[in-house]
Amino acid sequence: MARITLRLAAFVAGAVLAFGLAAVSVVVHRPVLMAVGNMCDPSADNPGGLCYQRLPAGGWPFAFLYDDPGTSVLGTLGPEDDFRPGWFLVDAAIFAVLPAIGVVVFLVRRRRSAG
Predict the structure, then answer these.
(1) What is the pTM (predicted TM-score) of this model?
(2) Integer CA distances (angstroms), 77 to 8, 72, 83, in order
(3) Per-residue confidence of the chain (115 residues) as pLDDT tens digits?
């Protein structure tokens, strides 16, 4: 029973660490070209007359929070912006691999030194 509890605690700690690291990674911003309106002059390349601007997107290694020009101040990220949970879960999964690799390396080294 103690072994199951220990593994469950390790799993929960790894999940909390992964989700925490993914959430904190939103401070890594990159500019993304996004449509911010439709009042620009139409052209052959832009028949709809959309206006484009580079706006920040947050998250690493994949962006999961995009500046929404319709609901927030342009150029800043906040809770009202476009959150994409799929990319957030991909980031969390990538961050979950790191502690899992650490546990595997620790267990392999422990078995080699004991045997």
Answers:
(1) 0.81
(2) 35, 8, 10
(3) 688 898 888 889 889 999 999 999 999 999 999 999 989 999 999 899 999 999 999 999 999 999 999 888 889 999 999 999 999 999 999 999 987 888 889 889 988 887 6
